From TrEMBL:
Domain Helicase ATP-binding: 26-198
Protein name per UniProt: DNA helicase RecQ
Pfam families noted in UniProt: DEAD, Helicase_C, HRDC, RecQ_Zn_bind, RQC
Keywords linked to the UniProt accession: ATP-binding, DNA damage, DNA recombination, DNA repair, DNA-binding, Helicase, Hydrolase, Isomerase, Metal-binding, Nucleotide-binding, Zinc
CDD domains: DEXHc_RecQ, SF2_C_RecQ
Boundaries of every Helicase C-terminal domain copy: 219-366
Keyword Transmembrane helix (UniProt): no
Native organism: Marilutibacter alkalisoli
Gene Ontology CC annotation, any one: bacterial nucleoid
Length: 619
């Protein structure tokens, strides 16, 4: 080959070296091999098909599920001087026809298409014509987990992509995903006929993300307090319902935070405008349902907050993975309560899915609840669900409560190891209360009984005459909420998901009630008086010397101006990491600027003079 992969990596993409298994993947696919690549978000998956497509004769076809992702990737490649285009419903007929001519004429290195468009008879015919001229470099199937019918992003069109292998068996295929547990990995290989493909599985760990789970206790205030530590930074807040999205976005905007809503029920134009503001702006917070996210390539998202429990641990991993794609410190924060669990179990039971599907969804939800309630390192629990054993940063220290010492050093359980308490007596009281009140009431009413409330509802049902009335007055309501939540999580109580969400005993309850089993629960820490959150240095300037900050800000202003002129997100032009390196090294010539990470030949030609002028003006 005239160009080597490393040459292109350095001259076009501006990266000095490959990361992890990138070099091996690129060589394998460029040599004509099929590959299944599992790599975490931000791990450099795109290069694994972009470089082989440029090394091989012809055009690489990238099957991507979302318009926003295509547009971002294509714009980023064009900034680098790569001949790339996309075909999707956002284009008018004239533009689409021009791109097809360029493709047929051999002028494109990469063409992005949606699976629905790829499978049309017209597109399949065009692919035949291109293949006859030897101009099909490869097929890249991005977000390959969409093929799994049990997954959270199932796209039926992905099932039909077997046509690629059946119709053009000599064209290499590479399927890529950042979210796939072992069963999903097997299903991807089977459904896409990639059983003989070489597998490349990287660690799923996102070491730069700090994971935190808190018990719901005035969730809006908790969210606002959390956001005080991320003032002026971009982030995503996920909610389960559209109504809640609107309410939280309005609440945040009313408290001085630049927040916008996003959900499938909004006017399409307003939804697109809010997405554009988030992608193009600095420090915008988007409050969204899971309709927002897949394919969002914004690298400087500093946090992802969940106001409700997601439906599965895979969904949680993918959603939190939208934070910190640039490798800088980021946070995944979740506010979770028993009500979330009750609601999700009701949604599963009341859905029209078959029994097999319902059982699977319950198992997936149980795995996530287990993660939330665990006293172990969150990273260990999370990665174990993807078949990965997480090795500790330092040797775990034994703890009398059953929790480990610091394992990852970057989750709430490692930073502030939780305490356990012998909750056997409290559990017996709770279970007895559930039984004596008829196994049809929710936690709030049961707590009122245990604490001896004299409310109208208590008297109406005669629950003030129960033997359990008032026997739990020694514990506060917050502690009791934690007890009931954990009893459901540990299988000692069940939710009547087909009814009104009342709690009922399980078979496992019997041993506890008979005194044959001890119950250890996580101690609920009662939050002290609210304290003002100290202003935090933005991640973008953390690694800079104070003297370099003014130049960095000047470079960001230059980047923002260029982005506005071209109507593209700022990160498409330069990442913060590149601007930081420029600010620290202060290059005085194009030769010195070419040695900065993220500046290839294309960007040097387009922006080199302007960057050097900005550096010179800063003195």
């Amino acid at each position: 080959m005239e160009n080597t992969a490393l040459d292109l990596l350095r001259t076009v993409f501006g990266h000095p070296d490959f990361r992890g298994e990138q070099a091996e993947i690129v060589t394998h696919v460029a040599d004509g091999g099929d590959a299944l690549v599992l790599m975490p978000t931000g791990g450099g998956k795109s290069l694994c098909y972009q470089l082989p497509a440029m090394l091989r004769d012809g055009c690489g076809i990238v099957i991507s599920p979302l318009i926003a992702l295509m547009q971002d990737q294509v714009e980023g490649l064009r900034q680098l001087g790569v001949h790339a285009a996309f075909l999707n419903s956002s284009l008018d007929a004239e533009t689409a026809a021009r791109i097809e001519r360029e493709w047929l004429g051999g002028e494109l290195d990469l063409l992005y298409v949606a699976p629905e468009r790829l499978l049309t008879s017209r597109m399949l015919g065009l692919l035949d014509r291109v293949h006859q001229h030897g101009r099909l470099a490869l097929f890249a199937i991005d977000e390959a987990h969409c093929v799994s019918q049990w997954g959270h992003d199932f796209r039926p069109e992905y099932r039909q992509l077997t046509v690629l292998h059946e119709r053009w068996p000599d064209v290499p295929r590479i399927a890529l995903t950042a979210t796939a547990d072992p069963p999903t990995q097997r299903e991807i290989a089977e459904r896409l006929q990639l059983d003989d493909a070489r597998r490349f599985v990287s660690s799923f760990d996102r070491a730069n993300i700090r994971y935190t789970v808190v018990q719901k206790d005035n969730a809006r205030r908790q969210l606002f307090d959390f956001l005080q530590g991320h003032a002026g930074e971009a982030g995503i807040v996920y909610c389960l319902s559209r109504r809640k999205v609107e309410e939280i976005a309005e609440f945040l905007a009313g408290h001085g935070i630049d927040a916008v809503p996003y959900h499938a029920g909004m006017d399409a134009r307003l939804r697109a405008e809010n997405q554009r503001r988030f992608l193009h702006g600095e420090g915008v917070v988007v409050v969204a349902t899971i309709a927002f996210g897949m394919g969002i390539d914004k690298p400087d998202v500093r946090f992802v907050a969940h106001m409700d429990l997601p439906k599965s641990i895979e969904g949680y991993y993918q959603e939190t993975g939208r934070a910190g794609r640039d490798g800088e410190p980021a946070e995944a924060w979740m506010c979770y309560g028993l009500g979330d669990l009750v609601l999700l179990r009701q949604m599963i039971e009341q859905s029209e899915s078959g029994e097999e599907r319902k059982r699977l969804e319950h198992r997936k939800l149980d795995a996530l609840v287990g993660y939330c309630e665990s006293m172990r390192c969150r990273r260990q629990v999370l990665l174990s669900n993807f078949g990965e054993e997480y090795l500790p940063v330092e040797a775990p220290q034994s703890s009398p409560c059953g929790a480990s010492g610091s394992i990852c050093g970057n989750c709430d359980n490692c930073l502030q190891p939780p305490e356990a308490w012998d909750a056997t007596e409290a559990t017996q009281k709770a279970l007895s209360c559930v039984y004596r009140s008829g196994q049809r009431f929710g936690a709030a009413h049961l707590i009122d009984i245990l604490r001896g409330s004299d409310s109208e509802k208590i008297r109406q049902f005669g629950h003030d005459r129960l033997s359990t009335h008032g026997i739990g007055a020694d514990l506060d309501a917050k502690t009791w909420r934690g007890v009931f939540r954990q009893l459901v999580a540990h299988g000692l109580l069940d939710v009547d998901a087909e009814g009104y969400g009342g709690l009922r005993l399980t078979a496992a309850s019997r041993a506890v009630l008979k005194g044959e089993q001890t119950v250890m629960l996580r101690k609920i820490v009662v939050k002290r008086e609210r304290t003002r959150v100290a202003a935090r240095t933005p991640a973008a300037v953390l690694a800079l010397a104070p003297a370099d900050v003014p130049l960095f800000e000047a470079l960001r202003e230059m980047r923002a101006r260029l982005a506005r002129e071209q109507n593209v997100p700022a990160y498409v032009i330069f990442h913060d990491r590149t601007l930081r390196e420029i600010a620290a090294r202060r290059p005085a010539s194009e030769g010195e600027l070419a040695g900065i990470g993220g500046i290839g030949t294309g960007k040097l030609e387009r922006y080199g003079g302007l960057v050097l002028d900005t550096v010179a003006a800063a003195g």
